Hints:
Layout: H1 25-39, H2 42-48, E1 49-50, E2 53-54, H3 68-79, H4 92-103, E3 109-113, E4 123-127, H5 128-141, E5 147-150, H6 157-170, E6 173-176, E7 193-197, H7 199-207, E8 217-220, H8 227-235, E9 240-247, E10 251-256, E11 263-265, E12 269-271, E13 277-282, E14 286-291, E15 294-298, E16 303-309, E17 314-316, E18 319-321, H9 323-330, E19 336-343, E20 352-358, H10 365-377, E21 388-392
Parallel strand pairs: 5-6, 5-7, 7-8, 8-9, 20-21
Antiparallel strand pairs: 1-2, 3-4, 9-10, 10-11, 11-16, 12-13, 13-14, 15-16, 17-18, 19-20
Amino acid sequence: MLATMKETRGYKSQVEPMHNFLLTTDDFQEILSSLLLAELPYAARMQFTEGASLTPAFVPTTQLLPNLAEISSKVSAMFHTPTPHTLGACSLRQWAEALHEDWGNEKQDITFFTSGSTGEPTPATQAFANHEQEVTALAEIFHERKRVVSFVPRHHIYGFLFSILLPKALGVEVKWAVPIPTPGLTESLQKDDLIVAFPLFWEKLKEMKIQFSRDLYGVTSTGPCPAETIHALKQNGLKRIYEIYGSSETGGVGYRKDPTSGYTLLPFWARTDDESCLQRTNSNHGNQEYALQDILNWNDATTFTPMRRTDNAVQVAGINVYPSHVRKILLEHPSIADCAIRLMRPKEGTRLKALIILNDKDSDLTHLEFSIRKWAKSRLSPYELPAAWTFKDEISTNTLGKAQDW
């Protein structure tokens, strides 16, 4: 793991803990590096990386990144810069310097994008002050940690909060690591480290029976982490693992360190009469209500358990349909092991599409696909029936372990 761990190059907060969250050129460089690495083909990632980051001299080109203009526009949208930067002869470091100059540390709004696991990624904008508020609360929880070791992308809100801002709040160094579990992982860790990862990564460490020591804490987010995984990690020596509940739209909402207990609200959130809505005391905008993706069951005024996702309808030919209902019906077919249902992207069409994982991967696909389609047609309305079918061996996931689009 030492070969894949990024050197910090002395990257340690120069400010007093929980007082100053100014973004530096190094921060912008790491965010850009993370975003570009997610888009680069594997060979280019291996050629231009130092540990978990691109080299400062790396020059993004359309030969390496055909969608470079789209990436530049996304960066401009994230940091609310006037226009996308002119690229082609600009190094990663130069791009970071230009962003830092445009940003100006005026603590303006910042926009993150959803993972796209449910279709087209959508922007979620919050005041930078809200992120400061959240990280100040997180620093109280993790105040004993002496270093942050992050296996999550810095251009997603989870990675930004925990591996860009939290080290500043704690006044500690940060190391970014390639999210590839290896048997020697613990050799690169130190006493009092906080390991920031996601459920799929923790699951792989459990399967590998990685042994932990040195008073290590873990953090997991982006989706549910099975209780058996957390229990196994603790049995293997991980002292504590925190689950963070939240989303791109809300940021962090609550945390827990025992998978059998409820989540505790972060101090700036409050319960409302709506079981899928919370009120946030924003740093500079008063109180604001946020809709959640789940219905919450409350243990008391400040602790809760997510019960089930709110059933968001999508429109097909002007009719509301529920992808979760379509998935439930398809899973009743004896040959289907798992499936995912999405609304098509605008360029694909206006109907639903289905990704099917079969129980028997050696079956006659041509015959079985016809049979499944006929079976589904007899049970679903014309609006619910997927217009595109894809058959794969597994549901692919992104760098955060979330299901990718197909």
